[in-house]
């Protein structure tokens, strides 16, 4: 493989990492509180509000039900409004973030519901406020599971970032389509697949290691 193509591969890898890292950071900042709300406002939750919970849950489910490739195209006007363009790595982050937020919310909700309710009852008996219970009981106890769930989301974003290449989103997916598929370069296609596999393996390893270290059991 030519050195110029290797440079393109490295540039595409950098764009993919940039897209996934920024999208994950923004989506986590919104998705984790969303998951807390979904968990605590449900039936028997410390902030029980069933009508609110059902409405929020319906919105989350609606967004999650949209295939990513359709979501990317459907929100092109919104993407243009936010970043000024619908093409490129920065533009690709808008649908990536929107797709990841409800996914993270549901994953965090699942992790929080796994925390033994006895711990919550003990905190309530000692006069802890709902916010204190969330910060000092629920999130710390669920953190290993949350990290494991977020690892799954990152891997999903890696795949979706590659899919974003179909509409000029940049990254490894864009390189695979423009050079591997359209220019009939199977070596480029194979190289991008291998890089994506290695990237996913590294993310999974790091996520498993962090979750294991956070697990106090």
From TrEMBL:
Its main location: membrane. It is a multi-pass membrane protein. It comes from the Bacteria. Residues 13-207 form the ABC transmembrane type-1 domain. The keyword NADP does not apply. InterPro entries: AA_ABC_Transporter_Permease, MetI-like, MetI-like_sf. It is found in: Cell membrane. SUPFAM superfamilies: MetI-like. CDD domains: TM_PBP2. GO terms for biological process: D-methionine transmembrane transport. One of its GO terms (cellular component) is plasma membrane. Keywords: Cell membrane, Membrane, Transmembrane, Transmembrane helix, Transport. The chain crosses the membrane at residues 12-36, 56-76, 81-104, 146-168, 188-211. Belongs to the binding-protein-dependent transport system permease family. CysTW subfamily. PANTHER family: ABC TRANSPORTER PERMEASE (PTHR30450), D-METHIONINE TRANSPORT SYSTEM PERMEASE PROTEIN METI-RELATED (PTHR30450:SF1). This is ABC transporter permease.
